[in-house]
Write the structure tokens for this entry.
Amino acid sequence: MSQESSASLDRRQWMLASASAAAAMPLLATSASADDPPRPAPSPLIVRQSTPENLETVFANLDSFVTPTPSFYVRSHFAVPSLDEKTFRLRIEGEVDRPITLTLDEIRRLGERTVTVLLECAGNGRVFLNPQAAGLLWDYGGVGTAEWTGVPLSAVLERAGLKKTAVEAILYGADTGEIKAMPNPFQTPGPVHFARSMPIAKAQRDALLAYKMNGAELTPAHGFPLRAIVPGWYGMASIKWLDRIVVTDRPFNGYFQTLEYAYFERRHGEPVLMPVTELQVKSTIARPARGETIQAGAACRIRGFAWTSDSEITRVEVSTDGGRSWNNAQLAEQNVQNAWRMWHYVWQNPTAGRHTLMCRAHDRRGRVQPMERDPDRRNGMISHVLPQEVIAR
Ligand SMILES: Nc1nc2c(c(=O)[nH]1)N[C@H]1C(S)=C(S)[C@@H](COP(=O)(O)O)O[C@H]1N2
Ligand SMILES: [Mo]
């Protein structure tokens, strides 16, 4: 597929999204940000798949640090399991001194905290890959930031007591199913639970078992009654409907970190398949949106979001001429590790015609958003700079 045709596909998807938003919502007289021209109220989510339900955020409509729950993307591999708060139990077993099961009340008593954490699907931006990669074709909106309330995973592990042999914690969701819609080597051997592991050090450092999102009980789609939140890692690590933790004495090779959600890392120059973990430094333009018409000659406020893993966004550059020249954007003061940072740049005098916008983020660890796609990342971890065409009239 040529660059041209993939760009027009995106534009069509954007127009479909905004057309359905316009049909469903009355036009607001004023927009959320005084600097943006008026547009429809926050739209419903875009349906990427209906069974199971996979829903994308309309990124161009995001204009707040915390993403409201009704606008937060949903990524589920299997049907939402129906779980009853009263009979729900979390089981912890494996390399522990005492295998235990905990009720939600027992979990809540382990020391509540609230963190603001961004989740980004490892496949976010997949629609831009060329050649097209396997998986759901997310545009910009497989990402969001929410306030999560729960207890540290470390507190739960402490209750069970880790043996000296403990190396990883595997988190299992209650959801289960088969993956068959791919060629044989990528199918599951019968039904599996959605599961991911992390090293014990990560589990003890900052992973959270959350029962609230944005101050309210988790919704079924987002993992009711209990989910993991793994700060700084791609979303697949944040297991929803979490009902089982197995501590192991060796790395886990489950389906969702080998055949899926894995990328090639070069070791001694040779590719080694590794589970996807840490978020890459990335920024995305929210407005003007791809294909949007802006006013020629009038100052245009370009705004967006930038994020990274276990670091801080220190700079976002914006180009209005397809990457020939770059200008520093203004970073918002609100700067929370493992959430995102809002930014804007005022483009003083757009001339009539087509323009290609770009943005590029830097972090405190010295990482820079790459200009080129790295094919070793297979079908995920999509963070390279993307051109965004707008029209000034
Ligand atoms: N049990 C379970 N947990 C899961 C998933 C899943 O399918 N089942 N999807 C993962 C993926 S790939 C992502 S990106 C995030 C999305 O979380 P959200 O649906 O709350 O946005 O959940 C993760 N946790
Ligand atoms: Mo994901």
The CA atoms of residues 262 and 274 lie 5 Å apart. Residues 1-34 have pLDDT under 50 and may be disordered. The two ends are 29 Å apart (CA to CA).
